[in-house]
Specification:
Elements lengths: L5 H8 L1 H14 L7 H10 L6 H12 L6 H23 L4 E2 L2 E2 L1 H4 L2 H21 L3 H23 L8 H25 L5 H28 L2 H4 L5 H4 L5 H9 L2 H11 L6 H13 L2 H19 L7 H12 L6
Antiparallel strand pairs: 1-2
Helix pairs in contact: 1-17, 2-5, 3-7, 4-5, 4-9, 4-17, 5-7, 5-8, 5-9, 8-9, 9-10, 10-16, 13-14, 13-16, 14-15, 16-17
Length: 329
Amino acid sequence: MTSNDPISKLHKMLSRKLESMDQLFSKMMESENAPRIPEITKHIFDSGGKKLRPLLCIASAEALNYKSDKHILLASTIEFIHTATLLHDDVVDESSTRRGKKTANILWDNKSSILVGDFLFSRAFQLMVSTNSLKVLKVLSNTAAFISESEVLQLTNIRNVNIDLETYFKIIEGKTAALFSAACETGAMVSTKNSNHIKNFKSFGKAIGICFQLIDDYLDYAGEAKIMGKSVGDDFFNSKLTYPIILTLKKGDKVDSDNIKSLFQKSLKSQNDLNILLEILDKYDALESTKIEAIRWSKLARDALQTIPKSSIKNLLEEISDYIISRTS
């Protein structure tokens, strides 16, 4: 992030609230009986993430002029859930790097990563309960279940060359968009009883999340490894069929479609295989089409904020919906 981008500006504007969240998060990740828990959690928490989900949670509350501190509890809850899913994802994907650093499953082991992820989910539920709101608890617990369900759906579709866009969007709505949506919705829920404002922030979060994932799909084939902190083509080597691939299978002629299917069904894939795939994607403008779809969701996010009262925070949230399109990591 640079000092001129809207995420950095929002970070600066809400810095005191984020510091409070960090302090609560650090306190809750401690364990007297299992020192490996804070070791692993600190490793992933300090690895340079944008903390965009808890930031949006706090911003959604502040945009509605919230005066208490429950949004700090919610932001920490969101970050615990997100960190837990990252630990689990790295094990499932057999990832070795994240944000340019070795993953916890490499530095420690798979069992530790899974168990620490479970610990973080437990901490998240403790914080949910402490908000004393059954409505908030329902949203966040449903979100946690939806995320897990979508991860399993994605796992069962590895190498599935017959996957359609409807299934793809089901996966990313749960895997990525659900937590963005819950962050914004619950931030609004503790701030207002205005159902339209709550609904609009929920829609904003969902659209931001889908846009974010589509750009992830785009960058996996069009990004730079040094900037992203991971290898180009990770989705391909993990046999994940994402938006540009599914779109090309739908648009491509039989020869190109069969070639893609053959590449994804290979157990061992090479750099040359990736190069062949990139040539086919380029032939059908699949990456550009992916970015166009992301822009559509970005506009939906901006539209969702139109009835929210004017404020400097609202302005930055609108800018973020556009800025995500231009991100490089």
